[in-house]
Amino acid sequence: MSLKGKVALVTGSTSGIGLGVARALAGQGADILMNGFGDAAQIEALRAGLAREFGVRVAFSGGDISKPDQVAAMVAQGHAELGGVDIVVNNAGIQFVADVVDFPDEQWDRVIAINLSGAFHVSKAALPAMKAKGWGRIINIASAHGLVASGQKAAYVAAKHGLLGLTKVIAIEMANAGVTCNAICPGWVLTPLVEKQLAARAKQDNCSVDEAKRRFLAEKQPMAQFSTPEEIGATAVFLCSEGARTITGAPISVDGGWVAQ
Ligand code: NAD
């Protein structure tokens, strides 16, 4: 159990990739501070289930990562309840799809506030203690859309490109402090975020959801398969390992060849 004694804060871990990453880190013995939105009873069941399955301590914060005061309270909760925050996975994110000319201003602000500024607020709050300890890991869940663009995703693509910039700056600032900062850039992963887009596509093309899945993959990925939250989790575990000690400021693609083209 390579991460026993470490505490990981995974934002947006009530669903999808974040939950997969939290499970993978817990599987290596890390205590977990879960975060995200959802039904209170379902979240409590996830929290208790994670603790029971992996024999680790698991706390939960419903803090909104776009609100700096709530982020500060969440990081303080990690210190008070779990004894620190050694690993941050900036995962929480949302999507909104529209042409630039039709893109609602408030949706642009919302996507940037959560997908980009949220990662800044959480990193800013967690870094001082990591630096003082001489060990830390920041892992930003960016996207293939941090490296290349698609139409109708202006705010998302801008936020994810920005997140890669933030990743590099933190990596440089922390280079000799024992703290690394990297980004994982997934392609398609079947989660509620993508299921919403698949349903919209099936409706638009008047086809089945299975056919929409095939089209999504065929348009973007040489590998005609979705990645899984478990696979993103396995990459996060590797980035936390001592073997990854000198990997910093790097975008790591887990995308079935999306950006190789
Ligand atoms: P998801 O919708 O399943 O999960 C998103 C999580 O973020 C949920 O737990 C939600 O409650 C939480 N969240 C949303 N707004 C929040 C806020 N303001 N504060 C705190 N938590 C908040 O989505 P997912 O597909 O698992 O996406 C997770 C991350 O992975 C996102 O950053 C997304 O951009 C990225 N990503 C996803 C894919 C994919 O194909 N699914 C591909 C590349 C990148």
How is this structure best described in words?
By secondary structure, the chain is of the alpha/beta class. The protein has two domains: 7-188 and 228-260, Rossmann fold (3-Layer(aba) Sandwich); 190-226, no CATH class. Helices cover 49% and strands 13% of the residues. The protein contains eight helices and seven strands; from the N terminus they run E-H-E-H-E-H-E-H-E-H-E-H-H-H-E. The chain has helices at residues 16-27, 40-54, 68-82, 105-133, 154-173, 192-205, 209-220, 229-240; strands at residues 7-10, 31-35, 58-61, 87-90, 136-141, 179-186, 251-254. A seven-stranded parallel sheet has the order 3-2-1-4-5-6-7, sandwiched between helices. Helix 4 links the parallel strand 4 (87-90) and strand 5 (136-141). The termini are far apart. 45% of the residues are buried. Bound molecules: nicotinamide-adenine-dinucleotide.
Instruction: Provide the number of structural domains.
Output: 2
| Unreliable sequence segments | none
**What can be said about the biggest beta sheet?**
7 strands, parallel
Name the CATH superfamily classification of the largest domain: NAD(P)-binding Rossmann-like Domain
Arrangement of strands in the largest sheet? 3-2-1-4-5-6-7
